[in-house]
Amino acid sequence: MSPLYSVIHRDFTLAMRQKADIFQPLTFFVLVITLFPIGVGPAPETLQKIGPGVIWVAAILSALLGMERLFRDDFNDGVLEQMQLSNLSLSWIMFAKVMTHWLLTIVPLILISPLLALFLNLTMPMYWALLATLLLGTPILSLLGSIAVALTVGLQKGGILLSLIIIPVFIPLLIFATSAVDTALFGLNYLPQLAIIAAMLCIAMALTPMAMSYAIKVSHQ
Amino acid sequence: MAFDSFADFIAMGGYGFFVWLSYGVSFLSIVLYIVYVKRQKRQLTQHVVAQQAREARIAAAKQSQEK
Amino acid sequence: MFVWLHPYAKTERAYALCNTLMPYFLSAAVLGLSVGLVWGMLFAPSDYQQGDSFRIIYIHVPSAILSMGTYVAMAIAGLVGLVWQWKTAYMSMIAMAPVGALVCFISLFTGAAWGKPMWGTWWIWDARLTSQLILLFLYFGVMALYYAFSDRQQAGKAAAIIALIGVINIPIIHYSVEWWNTLHQGSTITKIGKPSIAPSMKWPLLVSIAGFMGLIGTLTLMQLKNVIIERELHRPWVKQLLSQQETK
Amino acid sequence: MDVLIAQSLTCVKQDRVLFSDLDIILRAGELVHLTGPNGAGKTSLLRILAGLAQPETGLVHTNSADTYDVPLLYLGHKLAQNKHLSAIENLTYWSALHRVNPSVESLYHILAQYQLVGLEDLPTGQLSAGQQRRVSLARTELVQAPLWILDEPYTSLDVTGVSFIQTRVDEYVSRGGCVIMTSHQALSSSHLVRELVLEYQI
């Protein structure tokens, strides 16, 4: 069995045995979005205007919520130590773990997004734009967020600290993603925004695995 | 000199409140920060002095025991 | 190349260096700020559009520019710490963080106080103010992470990583916020201090920027001395130094 | 043959110097017992030797000959097994990380040696502390390593368990392996035990 495959296989098995870890962020995501029509009123135009922003903010929050446990169990029971000592590069293991986590916790959010688009009265072109930004943008959330997770994994009060240190970094992503959806509302070309998000994704993919493995080593000091 | 009188200078062409508020708050926050740093330093010093006093007491207690 | 710096990786030497450098920074701060601010407040002509309210520029712009500059300097210190494993680099990094946050706060406050007469409201999601606010959060993040660790060496490394991520993001944040701002508000709002500035206004500004640099240097050195003492509390030289100061 | 050379190690934790200028050379066929009071830095030293932690100063050099799978095997306080996965799953995963692929039959066989018959496919969370420790120690059978670093391997093992592990260690040392371990009990080994004492420093 190839080592990386076994990392992915193990995380899938574990997730299947603890389904709450998948469903809790998902439920949270839907709940937060349900709060907005109740909070700001059900006028369709208002909802359409705030819709993209609301969905993206909720996605960021629930991604952070789900990510907090990404390395915690492995840290506490010592599996991370053994990963560090294995003859596999720690960056690759981390990258595989984060991508598996993305598949398991974020992809369900993307799958449920048609429903939310309906809730928030998004038009069809807006929905396609939203889908594209979510597909390209949420891996960035996972990759960057996991650096912060790796740094705070050894701390008792990691949860809020994690959000505090990483949310400011997500702001450019939020700007480009929501503006792509807004542009789609007017039937304009939103490829530039998507291209920028894709560029950010490429940079994140290139740099974060290294930073993650260094962060894990710092946490293990 | 851009102002004719001291009152003019204070009034800042009608914007006096905002200008002096900015300058005042900036100055105040810098001063407060310096006070904070000085206090931090004093606390550290007191910590060290207390520690040394403690060590001296332990040494004295040991000596009187030996006698 | 950096061999001559190596002795300062020792904390005692670094502390002595702080004391040596302090007077220079302090005099730069006092001289620069008093000349720059008096010049700006008293002698610079008033703006034909904004009247005398533009005089806030002499604190707002230096603090805005230098709060970003301080963040970059902080990240460089963090990088030096990560690469060469210097304790003192982490110490100077974390000494810069509260000073940078303070300067960032000043720029935000003066921005708001300038905005009130200009825009009629204290807060507006202007591009510069927004990115300044995000910068303040980045500072808070670095400090929060640093002080969450009980082992200072670990804390330094972790905070350095976050500072580096932040510094890579600062330009992205800056330009994306600027773009976002034009997208949502068009050009209805005049950006403060943006168009070319008359030399009679510019020179005092440059002098007060230099003064602010001195001020930031002074405050950082003061904080750094405390950070060094706190880290090395158990070392004999610190004990001796502090008990001497106490008896004085 | 030197398996591991450590030069002038200094470790500082929470601004307390645990040890300074420590030189250690571990040779093949040697059993080293690391002792010292609580808080002397035994675990920190083992983690530094394993390469999990960086010393304040000093260097650790491991001699990784090509005939081995890994330069060293480290079993720490933490058992490194997920409690939702079975012993077999945990060991398979761990082996894959170290690029060895034992067959499932061989894993059953090894676990039987460690008196874990019938517990192989239960989630390890349902096993007792001693049984979990045995699963963790069964890793020593899976990879070829010139050095074992064992941190309190006897914790929560019963008497038979302790003597079984001791025979395993003895066999390994006779085959030319090197073991450095901590334990609160004296080691009753057929080999000469080198004692390495860490003093508690204030």
CATH superfamily (homologous) name of the largest domain in chain D: P-loop containing nucleotide triphosphate hydrolases
- Count helical runs of chain D: 5
Number of helices of chain A: 10
Average of pLDDT of chain A: 89
How far do the termini of chain A sit from each other? 31 Å
Helix content of chain D: 25-40%
What strand line-up does the widest sheet of chain D have? Answer: 5-6-7-3-8
- Percentage of residues in DSSP E strands of chain D: 25-35%
User: How many strands of chain D?
Assistant: 8
In terms of quaternary structure, the protein is heterotetramer
- As for the number of domains of chain A, it is 1
Largest sheet of chain D: 5 strands, parallel
Radius of gyration of chain A: 18 Å
**CATH class category label of the largest domain in chain D:** Alpha Beta
Uncertain regions spanning at least 5 consecutive residues of chain A: none
Structure, described:
The complex is a heterotetramer of chains A (221), B (67), C (248) and D (202). Chain A is mainly α and 221 residues long. Chain A contains ten helices and no strands. Chain A is elongated and about 55 Å long. The mean pLDDT of chain A is 89. In chain B, 85% of the residues lie in helices and 0% in strands. Chain D is α/β, with parallel strands linked by helices and 202 residues long. Chain D folds into two domains: 1-72 and 148-202, Rossmann fold (3-Layer(aba) Sandwich); 81-144, no CATH class. In chain D, 27% of the residues lie in helices and 26% in strands. Chain D has helices at residues 42-50, 87-97, 104-113, 129-137, 159-174; strands at 2-13, 16-27, 31-35, 57-62, 73-75, 147-151, 178-182, 193-197. In chain D, β6 (147-151), α5 and β7 form a beta-alpha-beta unit. Chain D starts with a strand and ends in a 5-residue tail after the last strand. The relative contact order of chain D is 0.22. Classes of the chains: A mainly alpha (221), B mainly alpha (67), C mainly alpha (248), D alpha/beta (202).
Short description:
The complex is a heterotetramer of chains A (221), B (67), C (248) and D (202). Chain B is mostly helical and 67 residues long.
List the main descriptive attributes of the protein structure presented here:
heterotetramer; A: 221 residues; mainly alpha; 83% helix; B: 67 residues
Give the helix/strand layout.
The complex is a heterotetramer of chains A (221), B (67), C (248) and D (202).
Chain A: H1 3-17, H2 20-40, H3 44-67, H4 72-76, H5 79-85, H6 90-119, H7 124-152, H8 158-166, H9 171-185, H10 191-219
Chain B: H1 6-11, H2 16-66
Chain D: E1 2-13, E2 16-27, E3 31-35, H1 42-50, E4 57-62, E5 73-75, H2 87-97, H3 104-113, H4 129-137, E6 147-151, H5 159-174, E7 178-182, E8 193-197
Parallel strand pairs in D: 3-7, 3-8, 5-6, 6-7
Antiparallel strand pairs in D: 1-2, 1-4
Helix pairs in contact in D: 2-3
